[in-house]
Amino acid sequence: ELTDEERRFSEIIAADSRVEPRDWMPDAYRRTLIRQISQHGHSEIIGMQPEGNWITRAPSLKRKAILMAKVQDEAGHGLYLYSAAQTLGITRDEITEQLITGKAKYSSIFNYPTPTWADMGAIGWLVDGAAICNQVPLCRASYGPYGRAMVRICKEESFHQRQGFEILLTLMQGSPAQREMAQDAVNRWYWPSLMMFGPPDDQSPNSAQSTAWKIKRFSNDELRQRFIGMLVPQAEALGVTLPDPHLRWDEETQQYAHSEIDWTEFFEVLAGRGPMNAERLRARREAHENGAWVREAAAEYARKRLDTRAP
Ligand code: ACO
């Protein structure tokens, strides 16, 4: 027997309507959203590092201004997402604590290094491309604050993807060494970008329930497949080769067949053993500690203002 609250919640989900912060919701739904939204926010915050690394070295003033704007957008996305998570009852301190103690996950993709300028192109094209593919369906997620945050985030992500594509296009029209640098970056980012969509469907413990709750609208493998289909013509336009010798159109399934993804690498990165995991957390922790005086000053300022207003 369903309680009235449970029935009301099921009706909202069935009607493709939105669950709002003050509505009753099952605990497991709340926990799943806190998990996904906070991990998503952490990905944006940690995701500032691989590109922040290139702000001082961007090859022109214009490139620097664009890259700076992009990294600032990521900070903004992180903050909207943390705010959306806070509507579910977790505090900002708890969210931060989970990240800096290494308890929380964030996207595997940000644990790879960015040794060349072409990495800025590959990240925009592949990483932000994958992010859009995964996030456009999340605009219809059943939880209102999350879906609405996604709308603006996706608009900004499409600008990010265009700028990455354009960096690669410029390099591909340059010298042989520049073309080689672009291809090398694509070779390094292609497989990790496919891993962003998460484990294969038969190894994705959260998918069934998240789909039933209409948080997820497509499976990890479906979105990954859609992404590959998007990339093939774009790679042709760029003149880069996607580093998969077995990639081919399959008439029978009407989709691209591809080589096996190295899931061992994915699970190693998730376990904290990717090339940059330790460095990303170290830098995040250091930034948090260096910001302690700002938090203290802000709290003190707020306290004093309250004091002076008191009757
Ligand atoms: N990197 C790190 N962890 C991952 C990744 C990944 N690429 N993919 C899956 N995982 C984790 C899941 O978080 C889950 O761990 P948990 O249960 O401890 O939280 C576990 O692997 C199993 O995966 P699933 O059961 O498939 O998990 P889920 O249903 O949450 O699907 C997905 C994973 C598709 C990433 C989903 O959480 C999602 O759409 N999140 C929002 C988008 C997002 O976070 N993007 C971040 C990168 S894009 C950007 O910031 C630019």
From TrEMBL:
InterPro entries: Aromatic_CoA_ox/epox, Ferritin-like, Ferritin-like_SF, PaaA, PaaA_PaaC. It comes from the Bacteria. Gene3D superfamilies: 1.20.1260.10. This is 1,2-phenylacetyl-CoA epoxidase subunit PaaA. It comes from Microbacterium terregens. The lineage of its organism: Bacteria, Bacillati, Actinomycetota, Actinomycetes, Micrococcales.
